[in-house]
Amino acid sequence: MDESGSCGSGGGFRPGVDSLDEPPNSRIFLVISKYTPESVLRERFSPFGEIQDIWVVRDKHTKESKGIAFVKFARSSQACKAMEEMHGQCLSPNDTKPIKVFIAQSRSSGSHRDVEDEELTRIFVMIPKSYTEEDLREKFKVYGDIEYCSIIKNKVTGESKGLGYVRYLKPSQAAQAIENCDRSFRAILAEPKNKASESSEQDYYNNMRQETLGHEPRVNMFPFEQQPEFSSFEKNDNRGQEPISKRLSVVSRVPFTEEQLFSIFDIVPGLEYCEVQRDPYSNYGHGVVQYFNVASAIYAKYKLHGFQYPPGNRIGVSFIDDGSNATDLLRKMATQMVAAQLASVVWNNPNQQQFLQFGGSSVSQLPQIQTDVVLPSCKKKAPPETPVKERLFIVFNPHPLPLDILEDIFCRFGNLIEVYLVSGKNVGYAKYADRISANDAITTLHGKILNGVRLKVMLADSPREESNKRQRTY
């Protein structure tokens, strides 16, 4: 595929291949009309910042545009702002289809990134150990709206490790923070563990990187078999006596790297961080893994203990006692897993979606919500004939929630007209008679886990725009 374009105006330069991603995420990928000239692209995107170059992808033989282009900005925040403002817009009044704008794929990212990509909104920072989450928020709120701040602490002593995360609502805000914050914070995007460090600074703290929300959980976990000679790693059937916590100890007869450790345990959703611990007196591999919730840790322990990696070498996984109350943790985990399993049964069996007998009563009578999110009290739905003021698009991971639970969740923000699922897909819609209620639902529910299902809640495109959309082919 040939790419053609010309260098930016105003003394700009055309970057070489090695500098296409310098700074990172400064290049956007466009899906446009085949008849859109480069001059229109320059006119519409130059207000967002200095354009270093524009490439319009053309057919190698006919030299006709393929409807794909790249725009290289001088700064990451400029590219992110252009993506946020121009995605879904029409370049000219005569255009019938809106364009698509993404952060272009780089050597370190496996695909183009969109506005909802969590990798673009979370930054990783080094902070004084005396900082609280409020101190962290106060320092970084000047760059944009913050969704949350978190500080990594020693689970035994409770002391800060001098490392933290800041999650913004928009990619451009995170980019602004990285570009403009004090250099002592050494702010970078919180990348996945399996990406190689590119500087000595990253080598220092890449063992604390957080897993991304973009990873899809994999089904069919790796089976493991019994191996008598591996007696030290046999499963302990007397589970009630061992400590239960979110932290796991990993032991292997073969040394492993942090990337390998991450790739194994990232199979289970909810991985917070992992680190390799070096033993100078042996060649064994030792590591510590921590999940955001105890349910994920328990699932990882009993699925990956005895797993062969590499083939022929079995890893041993055990809990690290952090003083938690095992009874309470197990009760909470069991409740969440039962709710998730029940939702999965209802969804995967259409004949049972309307009425599923469970203990002699209908599931619809048990719309129990298991979540750490503070939800408002239930409110009455709006009449079906009420005009729709706002529609929300909902993405479920790994499977949709039952309709009765969905309705119970989204009606709590008031003025809900209807909530429904798209058959055969992990998506749905909610219709509201009031924009404020819809915005409250987004603020409260986006990115949160309810009944074991992570939700993405965002404003839906208008019906006219949806009818013009084409299926993504890249």
Rg, nearest Å:
25 Å
Q: Summarize the biggest pleated sheet.
A: 5 strands, antiparallel
Beta-strand share of residues: 15-25%
Biggest sheet strand order reads 1-3-4-2-5
Report the end-to-end length measured between terminal Cα atoms.
14 Å
Number of strands: 20
Low-confidence stretches: 1-13, 193-240, 352-366, 470-474
How many separate helices? 11
Q: Please state the overall shape, judged from the principal axes of the Cα atoms.
A: globular
Oligomer: single chain
Share of helical residues: 10-25%
SSE-based structural type:
alpha+beta
Mean pLDDT reading = 76
Topology:
Layout: E1 2-7, E2 27-31, H1 38-45, E3 51-58, E4 65-73, H2 76-86, E5 100-103, E6 122-126, H3 133-140, E7 146-153, E8 160-168, H4 171-180, E9 188-189, H5 200-205, E10 247-252, H6 258-265, E11 271-277, E12 285-291, H7 294-304, E13 316-319, H8 326-348, E14 357-358, E15 361-362, E16 390-397, H9 403-410, E17 416-421, E18 427-432, H10 435-445, E19 449-450, E20 453-459, H11 463-467
Antiparallel strand pairs: 1-3, 2-4, 2-5, 3-4, 6-8, 6-9, 7-8, 10-12, 10-13, 11-12, 14-15, 16-18, 16-20, 17-18, 19-20
Task: Write up this protein.
With 474 residues, this protein is α+β, with helices and mostly antiparallel strands. Helices cover 23% and strands 24% of the residues. The chain is built from 11 helices and 20 strands. The protein has helices at residues 38-45, 76-86, 133-140, 171-180, 200-205, 258-265, 294-304, 326-348, 403-410, 435-445, 463-467, and strands at residues 2-7, 27-31, 51-58, 65-73, 100-103, 122-126, 146-153, 160-168, 188-189, 247-252, 271-277, 285-291, 316-319, 357-358, 361-362, 390-397, 416-421, 427-432, 449-450, 453-459. The strands form 5 sheets. Strands 1-3-4-2-5 form a 5-stranded antiparallel sheet, with helices on one face. Strands 17-18-16-20-19 form a 5-stranded antiparallel sheet, with helices on one face. The radius of gyration is 25 Å and the shape is globular. It starts with a strand and ends in a 7-residue tail after the last helix. Mean pLDDT is 76; it is low at 1-13, 193-240, 352-366 and 470-474.
